[in-house]
Amino acid sequence: MVQRKRPTSLKGNLWTVVGFGLCNFAISYLLLYYGTILTISALVTLIFSMKVVTTPLLISVFLKQKASAKIYIGGAFGILSVIVTLIPQLHHMSGDFLLGGALAILGTCITSLGDVFSLYNSDKNIDPVFANTVGMFSAVMLLLIFSVVSGQSFTLPTQPTYWLGLGYLAVLASFVAWLFYLKLVKNIGASKSSYMVAGFPAIGGISSVIIGESQLTLYLVLGIIFAVFGAYIALSKERQSA
User: Fold this and answer.
1) Rounded to whole angstroms, how far apart are CA atoms 62 and 191?
2) Which of 27, 78, 89, 201 could, after both became Cys, cross-link 50 (CB 3.0–4.6 A)?
3) Rounded distance, CA 116 to CA 12, Å?
């Protein structure tokens, strides 16, 4: 039997829904996008994988849910993975490269802040579809304002591939994917849901090598291993005492 639940009113919670949309659909995307342009995608994905640590930490700060010690241990491995990956770049780091890394760190923190909003909204029983709709609309408005203020020109491409790609990103990769993520947050919590980024370093590193953006080196491999291991520690279950 299918039961229809009436969504909780947004009265008093609208700002958290808008905050979720701005953080996860607009601001973080912009920061990570420009960070990838200025640096390399492998480094950005390594930094973003630290979301498994930053999300529980921000939840403990804003929602007063205590973070386990293993979160800090996992975070230490995450920082180590970034340092190891940067070793080959130490002798020829440019200002743009450092700025790109800083934008990636800020984008990761903003994404984690969005997770805090999503967990809060879930606790308030706000319907995920409604939260997605309001959040994405808020993000679109912010991006529109940003485009106008920055003097961007608007054109309508005629290539079918562009519209197919845009449709995939807007519907499947954004709305549907985030709907599933919000359902995951509701079922197991925002901290455990962050486990999905544990495989990002390997995917990002391999992709960066395939497209010729970076070379497969021992430092990159070790960075990926440390990042995944840190995520595993941060999200591993506590051992139950007998």
Assistant:
1) 13
2) 78
3) 17
Dihedral sign for Cα 24, 29, 35, 39, please.
positive
| pTM of this structure | 0.76
Q: How many CB atoms lie within 10 A of CB 237?
A: 7
Q: Is the dihedral of CA 17, 23, 24, 30 positive or negative?
A: positive
Q: Residue written as tokens 């595993």?
A: 232
In whole angstroms, give the CA distance from residue 227 to residue 225.
5
Q: What amino acid is encoded at 179 in this protein?
A: L
- Angle, CA of 79, 80 and 86, to the nearest 5°: 95
Cα 148 to the center of its chain, rounded Å: 26
- As a whole number of angstroms, the distance between CA 220 and CA 222 comes to 5
Quick check: helix, strand or coil at residue 142? helix
Whole-number Å distance between alpha carbons of 104 and 47: 7
What is the full DSSP assignment across 165-194? HHHIIIIIIIIIHHHHHHHHHHHH-HHHHG
